[in-house]
Amino acid sequence: MMERRRMDVALLVLFLVQLTTALEVPLDLLEGLPQPPTITHQSPKDYIIDPRENIIIHCEAKGKPHPSFSWTRNGTHFDIDEDPNVTMKPHSGTMVVDISRAKAEHYESVYQCTSRNKHGTAVSNNIVVQQSRSPLWSKEKLKAMVVQEGVSMVLPCRPPAGLPPPIIFWMDNNFQKLPQSSRVSQSLNGDLYFSNVLREDSRNDYICYARFPYTQTIQQKQPISVKVLNMDAINDTMAAFYNETDLFSEEPADERKPTFLIPSGPSSSKMVLRGQVLEMECIAEGLPTPEVSWIKVSGDLPAKRTFFLHYQKTLRIVNVSESDAGDYRCTARNRLGSVHHTIKVNVKAAPYWISGAPRNLVLAPGESGVLTCRASGTPKPLVTWAMNGIPIENSPKDLSRKVEDDTIIFTDVQTGSSAVFQCNVSNDYGYLLSNAFVNVLSETPRVLTPSNKVYQVIKNHPALIDCASFGSPIPKITWFKDSRASTLDGDPYIVHDNGTLEIHVAQARNSGKYTCVARNTLGNYENHVYLEVKEPTRILKQPEYKVVQRGRSVVFECKVKHDPSLIPTMTWLKDDGELPDDERLIVDSDSLAISDVTENDAGVYTCIMNTTLDHDSASAELTVVEATPTPAVVYERPDPPTDLELTDQKKRSVQLTWTPGDEHNSPIQKFLIQFEDSLHHRGHWHNLTEVPGSKTTAHLKLSPYMHYTFRVLALNAVNLSRPSFPSRMFKTEPAAPDENPTGVQGLGTEHDNLVISWKPLTGLQSNGPGLHYRVMWRQKLVDSDWTTVTVANNSKFVVSGTPTFVPYELRVQAVNEQGAAAEPQTAIGFSGEDLPVAAPENVQAMLLNSTLAKVHWEPVPARSIRGHLKGYRVYYWRDRSLHKHNPHHAEKQILTFSGNHTHGMLPGLHPFSLYSFNVRLYNGKGEGPPSPTQQFETPEGVPGPPTSLLVTNPNLDSLTLEWSPPHDRNGHITGYTLKYQPVNDSNELGPLEELALPANETSVTVFSLKYSTRYKFYLNAITVSGAGPAISQEAVTIMDEGNTQTPHPIAPSPPRRPPHKAQPASPFKNISSSFVEDGTLISWEYWGPEKNVYVEYIVKNSEGEEEWQKELVNGSQNVTLKGLKGGLSYRVRLVAQGHHDQPLHHSEELVVSVPAVASRQVDIATQGWFIGLMCAIALLILILLIICFIQRNKGGKYPVKEKEDAHTDPEFQPMKDDDCTFGEYSDNEDHKPLKGSRTPSNGTVKRDDSDDSLVDYGDGGDGQFNEDGSFIGQYSGKSASRETAEGHESSEAPSPINAMNSLNSFV
């Protein structure tokens, strides 16, 4: 019984579908018809937004009347009016969230749009709004990976989870992609796999990068260091001690058959959704490197949708379908064997339409129809219906409506039952939501095809004549031709269901007028169209094959026949491409001519004749051969033409004929015709026109009121001929001007005038005597009459007494004694501008960071601009620093923003400062009044360098440092960082030490230093925003004099703070001196505004005639005086010089006594002569050892020697000086590794560390790249921890014992 009922329903649905198919009509074409809402555009279901931009959630709909819109958020009504950050676009449901005043994450929710009018309600999908995320890499300390050559290795990436997920790639510290191969490849999760490692894999800059596509941010992981140990390096070390005897095998790790690194086990499974991309990977390790292959166990791989990536390790199948389910097997194979892994793929499917989404339905009262929601999926989806956004089971009951699973059946519908139905199809993997309306209408027929439309078709081709109609009930279409004797039904006519009339093979007799009639029970409608059957386009004479000598000419003909009512277009091609852009190729209406043929002209030439309806083409080949040698020819320019004659004389034209002169073996290319006007420009010849060299006649168009005399010149390949003798004079009669002046414009030079100007006509354009101009103007947008004046011998006119900046309509007409030119065109001009009278309002400043602010304002109303808006200017100045120690500043700066801007950026601000600003509008006249001055405070930034850094009290193992705070504090100083390191004679830097100091300290004593050693110190200040740039200084500890001191930790010296007192009149204070290696260092603090500062010094107790010596400072607050002589005392002072009319500012004088002998104690072990002496001694010892060895071996093998050989101690025996055997092994300074090399305790040699990664500077995990590619994060020096860790690995030279111990650790 149930099956019978389902069969009946299916038959009824099929019958109703056939009845209602023709009602699928685009209602957009019909004006005035009522229509329920239809959503035309909406945001995607999963909507990922950029947190830096406003959120725009789209919802557009149409309907009659135009629908209204509302939104839900997380299933409840979202009142947009109550949220000041949310607006809705006019006449639209699109919602805009302004994130400038709110955070984007506050609006991460599920939204749904509802569109309704009185005929129904449509709803959008659930739009899940999430902001894109690019989280920072978690900080971690990575240990170096040490592996033996030949084994497998995996470098983990583990990027932070972003939205959407990041794109992973590996690069080195030079931003070069790491090479990948069948041995080394990246997995789908971003890890880097090595099937086996080689020696060249050793490097310290394996860096994993993650690129987040929405924010265009790139982050990098800390570099991973890999060291590959190999037996060759150990054998090379041992050979130096044991006569090159191999103690170990040179083979790396044993060869082995493949095993899979991923996936694990013999089998695994994977689920993928229909339509998505299936990616499976198999990465194997082994030696030699395995090769990976794939098969589908249960069938063949889909050839067009299958791709192999990452050197066959990844199998990708795109656009997955249910047929792709099954078992896939990957095989890894090398010469030692193979291994397999089977992956079972299950294909699921989110719901998808079988025959498309439900379609809108238009029914007449009393008619029946169906809405079908036919979809499929795996697992089978559930279908639910709603009407006007309400579940259909909760909607009002309607006997004309019946729901049968995925179908709604409508029978005997009535007026007023229009509604929008929602079909929701869902399963575990997704959903489909579709709106379809049922519109109940009673409408007389209408034909939508334009009336009197002309259809054109080529003879013997099919013809299709449209009759698109609409009506409710469905109209019936009948066709008639010409006299309407009978309906067109049957051969050769076919009437389609949509009303289109088809003629299979159109003939000339089918041309004529056609009438389609649309008829239903409410009336009928006629529409007339026309059919024209055209003759086909045919090439009558095709181009022929040509063989031409180089340098000759050739012509291809292409004669065509076409319908005379169609406009033809001839196109030529060469070798199926465009013709070369060469003046030697001349295209005529039915031919192609090529002159001076070259080898490049050879090829196939095709002529194509196109019309608006059809085309025809034909081709021919050109072969170029060498020209036959000919005797030398003398080429000269042609003789001038003769026998000039004027015929066919008219008011404005005449025909000129002539006889060409001798060509002199070079064909005439063209003739140049010139004229002289003896009435206006006697004695001046002007070019009139050119004609081809094959013609001897020219029809000349002339101007009125001219006295013409003509002459002709001939041109060939050599040059122009001499001019011909002039023709007789031909006079033209005067006439009214043919044209009016151009360049008419109006602008004011004062606020109450209008200057009308134009480009005057030339004498040739005047066409007669008495030329003058009729100037007309009237105010635009005001109903007023034209004001007219006459102007002669001038090209401008000034109108006075005009209102300020008002548009005017302008006309300038040329007039002479014969009459006026045609009515002139109207130009628009403006009277004079005046200064703006209003300032921008609602001016606000928004701080973006400590050095950048954004200023907003509202535009000035147009009536207050009083001129052409040029732009806005922002005046801003720094009132003062927010720090009490910094002086005041008041230099105004101006930024101009052209055009109608409403905001601008203020760059280059000083941190931790108070700024004032105002905004002014400017037009062509000047600036308007300023807006009220406002203020803003910039946040703290990083400080500048300390003002000075002095090193005092040098002792055997300590130095005292004194400094002054930074001049530009840019905030509250929270502390200082002091770094220092030794410097040797070769200017090489030693290990770096670091010390954090409190903010209230201005001096510190550094203990535990080496005696007689030069140190370099770096000091920088710190605020809450970070550390600023450092100031550096060098100093030397004194030489060891036999005294020893107990090492003591670094202790700050008591702070030296000046007593609190009033600011002195001099801008200088804290002036001090110290002695450095290359002179005397003078330091000070300066608080004055002058930029020109210098140091003066003079010998103390000098005679009066001596002058002060001057040393420029260049903006710093310390200087090294190198010209002071030892044993003398000097008076030193600082001078600040302002403008020429201001007095000089002098500091208090400082007396500096320079030591008589500035000796610097150095370590003898670092002197060149000492190193050379030691090398000579070592060479002498080596020669003695060689002689001893030779003498010992001369006597052969003695019994004592045999006994020694038989009882050799397994340990290495010391060599004594008296018997040339090994003594104690010394590991002193002479055996240290070479400079720049580092030798770990495992016996391997590290690669040169000069290729530093960017991650070596600061915390690599915080490194990011912005959209413009700049690096985010502080670029600082290498951390002391890194230097210390590497520097303490080993200070010993490679020894045989160490090499053996290292090897034993791996056996």
TrEMBL record:
Source organism of the structure: Gymnodraco acuticeps (Antarctic dragonfish)
Compositional bias of kind Basic and acidic residues: 1200-1219, 1280-1291
Ranges of biased composition (kind: Polar residues): 1298-1307
Compartment(s) of residence: Cell membrane
Coiled-coil region list: none
InterPro entries documented for this protein: FN3_dom, FN3_sf, Ig-like_dom, Ig-like_dom_sf, Ig-like_fold, Ig_I-set, Ig_sub, Ig_sub2
Record's keyword terms, sorted: Cell adhesion, Cell membrane, Developmental protein, Differentiation, Disulfide bond, Glycoprotein, Immunoglobulin domain, Membrane, Neurogenesis, Phosphoprotein, Repeat, Signal, Transmembrane, Transmembrane helix
Region (Disordered): 1042-1069, 1200-1307
Signal peptide: 1-22
Residues in Fibronectin type-III domain copies: 640-735, 737-834, 839-941, 945-1041, 1064-1157
Family: Belongs to the immunoglobulin superfamily. L1/neurofascin/NgCAM family.
Annotated GO biological process: axon guidance; brain development
Name of protein: Neuronal cell adhesion molecule-like isoform X4
Membrane-spanning ranges: 1169-1190
